[in-house]
Amino acid sequence: MTNQKNTIRYVPLTSAYFSQVITLANQVHGKGYLDNDKLSQWTNKGIVNTINCSFVALLDNKLIGFRSTYSANKWPIDHWCSPTLWQVEPQKCCYFKCNTVDEKHRGLGIGKQLLQLAIEAAKQQGALAGISHLWQQSPNNSAVAYFTKCGGKLIKSHPDRWHEESKQGYQCILCGHDCHCEAAEMIIHFDNKGSLSD
User: Fold this and answer.
1) How far is C-alpha 11 from the chain's CA centre?
2) Which segments constitute the N-acetyltransferase domain (predicted)?
3) Which domains does the chain possess?
């Protein structure tokens, strides 16, 4: 496993990887989760002054993971967000939209490295913190556990976060087209932050 970890490359997410990203996302999160138009919008929301805060992980030129991140002030703060609890100006918060790692390559620190790269890029863009909605029904609640280990703090839980999307074509791998999964709204503050803790 060590040799495999050493050969993983991390590069910014561009359209060259869209096809592989969409395939992996729909495989992990459910059919209809992502398409080309949606991914193009996601990616454009993460670029400011040529700094891209979305990344992919490659092993022998095959995509095995990705993180999509929105730049601060380039994403809608909707009713699933609690900005009064963030302790930082909302316009200084980026949004960690999606983190996905191929099941066969989990446990190698890929998700952590993708998050670290996203944080460093977002900081260069001027962000002071990052918000995310973590899938609480992930196996063993691994999404929340991973984000917590990386410094994330729970802000609020949101039942039915993806219910409307499931009615519009997204097929949750647990609930089908009637998703009632819960989202954990979490934040990572970047101030004086070095590398993510192990």
Assistant:
1) 15
2) 8-191
3) 2-189 (3.40.630.30)
pLDDT for 51-71, tens place per residue?
999 999 999 989 999 999 999
Amino acid at 189: H
Q: pLDDT category, 198, cuts 50, 70, 90? A: very low
Residue 186, strand partner residues = 132, 154
Confirm if 38 and 140 have CB atoms less than 8 A apart. Answer: no
Distances (CA, A) of 191 to 13, 40, 128: 25, 30, 6
Which residues neighbour 52 within 8 Å (Cβ) at sequence distance 6 or greater?
A: 12, 13, 14, 43, 46, 121
Which residues, other chains included, contact 193 with Cβ-Cβ below 8 Å and sequence gap of 6+?
119, 151
Contact (Cβ atoms closer than 8 angstroms) between residue 93 and residue 69: no
Report the residue count for the chain.
198
d(CA 156, CA 124): 28
The whole-angstrom separation of Cα 30 and Cα 174 is 9
Confirm if 8 and 114 have CB atoms less than 8 A apart: no
Task: Please give the angle made by the CA atoms of 58, 60 and 65, to the nearest 5 degrees.
Answer: 20
Distance of alpha carbon 155 from alpha carbon 132, whole angstroms? 10
For residue 195, pLDDT over 80 is answered with no
Q: Using CA atoms, how far apart are residues 164 and 180, in angstroms rounded to an integer?
A: 10
Q: Is residue 68 within 8 Å of residue 97, measured between CB atoms?
A: yes
Beta bridge partners of 158: 183
